[in-house]
Fold:
Amino acid sequence: MNPPEVTPASSLIPRTVANSQSEMTELILPNDTNVLGNLLGGRLMHYIDMTGAMAAYRHARTYIVTAAMDHIDFIQPVHLGNLITLKSSVNRAFNTSMEVGVKVWAEDTQTGAQQHVASAFLVFVAINKEGRRVRVPEVIPETAEEQRHYADALLRREHRIAEATRRKQEKLAHAALEDAEAAEPPAQ
Ligand SMILES: CC(C)(COP(=O)(O)OP(=O)(O)OC[C@H]1O[C@@H](n2cnc3c(N)ncnc32)[C@H](O)[C@@H]1OP(=O)(O)O)[C@@H](O)C(=O)NCCC(=O)NCCS
Structure:
């Protein structure tokens, strides 16, 4: 892990959640759907990634990459002809990474009825033009809901780090086992 590039202090002035709030609306057409006429999960993930990135750009004001899309709930199917609206904002910023929450609603164009259809959390990492990580400003949570998201984001980060450590140890143990098996003399 290389240390992040030093970011000028003027770029690290904390920003509110409202500063990063972003929104996107799409009309679901036949090319976006499966054989049952429902929105493809992969297409929805693309829209979620795009809307999440908009919030991350608005918060960090530098280049960003998606590091993880670690929690996504597909609650209801979205149908051909629906309008979907995605809303995103940065829940919390850490050193060079930010957790972004994205919520998706589907609207029936005939009745106007809206349904919450999906939610996701993504992590974006801020980088400079050369691809080196850069620090990001802190988030100021203002409302009670923003404060709850802010607190929960830290718990999710701890969970992510614990899970990454567990997977790394499992990989190392597996590699050690393979090495030991390879070193054993063949059975007579
Ligand atoms: C994401 C990436 C920049 C991380 O770089 P790295 O040097 O391996 O990461 P580090 O372990 O030093 O961690 C850097 C930060 O990223 C976070 N991070 C790294 N991997 C992560 C993951 N899988 N999930 C969540 N956060 C992650 C770390 O927690 C750390 O956050 P902090 O600076 O706020 O404390 C790098 O792995 C990468 O470029 N991945 C490819 C990204 C990409 O191509 N995305 C799709 C297209 S945009």
In short: The domain at 9-183 is CATH 3.10.129.10 (Thiol Ester Dehydrase; Chain A). The first helix runs from residue 17 to 20. The helical segments are 17-20, 41-60, 144-183. The chain has a mean pLDDT of 94.
